[in-house]
Amino acid sequence: MPINYYIFLSLALFCIGIAGVLTRRNAIIIFMCIELMLNAVNLLLVAFSKMHHLKNAAINATAGTDGQLFVFFIMVVAAAEVSVGLAIIVMMYRNIHSVDVNFLNRLKH
Amino acid sequence: MHITQILFWFLSVVALFSALMVISSRNPVYSVLWLIVTFFSISGHYILLNAQFLAIVNIIVYAGAIMVLFLFVIMLMNLNHETEPRKNRWLRLAGAVSGGCLLLVLVAALRNTEIRQQTAEINTGDIGLISNLGKTLFTEYVVPFEISSVLFLSAMVGAVVIGKKE
Fold it and tell me: What is the pLDDT of residue B19?
């Protein structure tokens, strides 16, 4: 499969995530769009690792393993990020009884 | 048309459609369910690329753990109704247009690059199998692996401290 199909698919997923962050007001949905962007990047990393493996398999039999391990570490960091972020959203809901990001401008005053 | 090509296009269409439904459905519970569909189709892409370990980890960690956490939080806050306040129409339009502009610029920049003659191998290659990944993970990347355990511990402590009542 040509690599640019994967590039354009990941770009489309990433831009859908960005459009979601910019258009929605619910903090949980904004968070889910961030997860969507992380997954688009993961898909592109896996596709690039397979491309690298196809090119360099004669020199190094395990070429491209690093890319898939980076995806694994991105998933680790994303899991930690989600747990802390959802705790912050729950605390915010407890304080202002809403998850609307427009009400979060009180740090200014 | 080969069967893997048909699968590639099918999974791509499912991923894009469900990603669009994530950002356009009013009810947050439906958004979570569509996001699970997206994650499953991305896992299908990983299986097509013969990265089976990442496909399974993606299903277990994302669709299994993280999405259940999202669902629990939404249920806890009683957000499963469709009365979410929305941004006004011009702000929504501006957000969609700027996302589309970013897509347009990136596609135009990457359309004629040199890399497009390369191909990603499908259905072959054993670097995505767990024996290869485990060997590399526990020899070259053992220090980041141990550091990530500290990261998890701090995330756990942080979530408990933040979520605790005063």
Answer: 93
Closest CA to A9 of A47, A51, A49: A47
Contact A16 B20 (CB under 8 A): yes
Residues in chain A predicted with pLDDT less than 50, given as ranges, are: none
Kind plus residue range of the DSSP H or E element containing B31: helix B28-48
What pLDDT, in 10s, does the model give residues B95-132?
A: 899 999 999 999 998 888 877 777 777 777 778 788 88
- List of domains in chain A: 3-108 (1.10.287.3510)
- The domain defined by B3-128 folds into Four Helix Bundle (Hemerythrin (Met), subunit A) (1.20.120)
Rounded to two decimals, the ipTM of the complex is 0.90
Q: Where are the domains of chain B?
A: 3-128, 129-166
Pick from A25, A60, A76, A100 the residue to mutate for testing the B interface (most B CBs within 10 Å).
A76
Positions in chain B whose pLDDT score sits under 50: none
Chain B positions in Cβ-Cβ contact with residue A81 (cut-off 8 Å): 155
Both tokens of A41, joined, read 């990047």
What is the residue-averaged pLDDT of chain B?
Answer: 87
Buried b (16+ CB within 10 A) or exposed e, B97-125: eebeeebeebeeeeeeeeeeeebbbbeeb
Tell me the shortest Cα–Cα distance from A106 to chain B, in angstroms: 19
The shortest C-alpha distance from B65 to chain A (Å) reads 9
Nearest CA in chain A to B133: A65
